[in-house]
Design a protein that fits this description.
The chain is an alpha+beta fold. The protein has a single domain, classed as phage-related protein like fold (Alpha-Beta Complex). 22% of the residues lie in helices and 25% in strands. The strands form four sheets. A six-stranded mixed sheet has the order 7-14-11-8-10-9. The protein has a four-stranded mixed sheet with strand order 1-12-13-4. The longest helix is centred in the middle third of the chain and has 20 residues. The chain is globular and about 100 Å long. About 5% of the residues have low confidence.
Length: 322
């Protein structure tokens, strides 16, 4: 293989090249939902044939006021059933050949090559999982994402192996008719997702709909409307946000598009869990070396799924385009 000398004159031959010792991320830093839920909504499970989520879906059939010797109804109530989710598996390989290691084995190296590869593998895995959190179930191997979970039977007839049809308590609040964003429409969906003190805790959209909400608040109002403010955890991680009813509104690059614009998701995180397997939670295998190659490979592994325990308290717009 032909090589080209770096040093072509006295200065370049004897001087070290100045390379900034910092690798700049131009790919992955657009994943606030994964960042937030993997820090605050992760649940670790050790093994099991599948992931099961117990659901309390109705009140007790008996009970109430009574007087004196009145006979009481003590019949049992079957008010709990399980939703079931498969294990979704993800991997990212780290492969390096002997010649690359030889070339990187220098005191002038800007970073340890293998450590850099591992760091990018972690970022790549997080990005794949972040995309999985928004999947619609088209790929059966993916995480059962929010696009499939926040549904009323339009995308999938079941969620967690429970049918939407005949189970009104297992349907999300879907607005598929509103095409123009207004504060009234936003409030109506927010209210539909709210019951008592249980309301959406975070809102996600594409940049286009984020910009539309920002612009709504520039329109003259009869009373002040303030979308400003921020969720400090998200802001400190570099994710800017607006507020609606005090709830952070963010852009996630993985939010699925509807036409060219995109959906708006109203999420109640109290019912969301990212379940991970104890033995496959960003687990890095040992390097394996083939007998007939000067190279080695290690796999970064993850297994788990997303579970939502209350679909009624989740909602989305699907047709906002102006």
């Amino acid at each position: 293989m032909a090589v080209t000398p770096i040093g072509t004159n006295t200065v370049t031959a004897l001087s070290r090249r100045l390379i900034l010792p910092r690798i700049v991320d131009n790919v992955y830093n657009s994943n606030p939902l994964f960042f937030r839920w993997y820090h605050a909504n992760k649940f670790t499970q050790q093994g099991g044939t599948q992931i099961e989520q117990p659901l309390m879906y109705s009140r007790m059939a008996a009970g109430g006021s009574y007087q004196g010797y009145q006979l009481l109804n003590v019949s049992p109530t079957d008010s709990v059933q399980n939703a079931a989710f498969p294990w979704a598996q993800y991997y990212t390989p780290v492969t390096v050949d002997g010649l690359t290691l030889l070339r990187a084995d220098s005191p002038l190296a800007i970073a340890d090559f293998v450590a850099t590869q591992f760091k990018q593998a972690e970022m790549d895995m997080a990005d794949n999982l972040g995309a999985g959190l928004w999947s619609d179930g088209a790929n059966a191997l993916d995480i059962i994402g929010l696009r499939q979970a926040i549904d009323n039977g339009t995308i999938s007839s079941t969620y967690g192996a429970i049918a939407h049809s005949g189970n009104s308590w297992w349907n999300a609040q879907i607005d598929s008719t509103t095409t123009t964003m207004t504060l009234i429409a936003l409030q109506n969906l927010f209210g539909s997702c709210t019951q008592g003190g249980r309301a959406p805790t975070i809102i996600f959209s594409t940049q286009a709909n984020y910009n539309r909400y920002w612009n709504l608040n520039l329109t003259p109002q009869q009373f002040p409307v303030q979308p400003g403010g921020r969720d400090m955890q998200l802001a400190q991680a570099g994710f800017e946000n607006l507020l609606f009813n005090g709830v952070p509104w963010l852009v996630d690059s993985h939010v699925p598009t509807s036409g060219t614009e995109g959906n708006i998701f109203f999420l109640n995180e109290d019912y969301a869990q990212v379940v991970t397997a104890t033995r496959a939670d960003f687990h890095l295998q040992d390097f394996q070396t083939p007998v007939n190659q000067d190279a080695m490979t290690a796999l970064l592994l993850w297994a788990g799924n997303l579970t939502l325990g209350n679909i009624q308290r989740q909602g989305k717009f699907t047709a906002i385009a102006a």
